[in-house]
Amino acid sequence: MKTGIYPGTYVPLGDEPTWMYQRRKRDGTWDNWTSFGTDAHGTTYTHAMNLSGIFRVKAVLHVTATMALERLYTRKGNEEPNGLGCVGDPDAVGVADTQFQVDFSALARTWLGSTNYPLAGVVPADYGFSEFPAGAYKCNIFVAHRAVQAGAVVPAINGYLHNYPPTANQWAGTASTDPILPFVYTIDHWLLENTAYPQPGFIVAHPDPSGPGHVGIVDYDGEGIGAGTSGTVNKRYYEFLDGTSGFRKYVP
Predict the structure, then answer these.
(1) What would the CATH number be for the domain defined by 96-252?
(2) Which of 43, 75, 153, 236 has a C-alpha 20 to 30 A away from that of 130?
(3) Which helix (H) or strand (E) segment is 101 a member of?
(4) Residue 65, by phi and psi: left (phi above 0), alpha (psi -120 to 50) or beta?
């Protein structure tokens, strides 16, 4: 990540400003602000993260011992514009463990606004899965389609002929993935992550013991991209932020 303070004609005193970061937790809150290190100062600072997760960054400018200004880093240019986690929050930067996760979340973003997964419509058979009928929730088929499209393996474990992908509750690790045995939560190639710090390119599932739940794909800002009941692929800025969601990481 690289950013700077403008205008360029302004010259801060000494080793100012200093640079700090926060990492986003699974419940939507943030860790305390932490310095990047003793060398994290100056009007421009470049840093290679050795941590994975969702981050936001700020520069803090002091005059003598008093903080005079702090500026939160925001994404610019042609980057995906829907990055704000909540109204009033600064934008965030995602750091993933694998290239697949980067590709998976980027692919999901290209489907924002799509109406190809409507609750009241039919989704044709594709990506190795059978047709999804009208009236069936489509969030899990959207996630399965994008995962396979990105190059992952998603097992078909549901349906009489084992022709449907995992449900949201199965992705979340609250419903058994075995048709006979209870308390079996494994999904081949998808590790159930008990993580405090989600990453872009994880599958995130919000369980519902009385319903189907909801599942999406974690974007760089920590939100989930999924096919909602509205019939439009969108981001959910609330449903994945209560700390109960399950996360899956793809392991080839």
Answers:
(1) 3.90.1720.10
(2) 236
(3) helix 99-109
(4) alpha
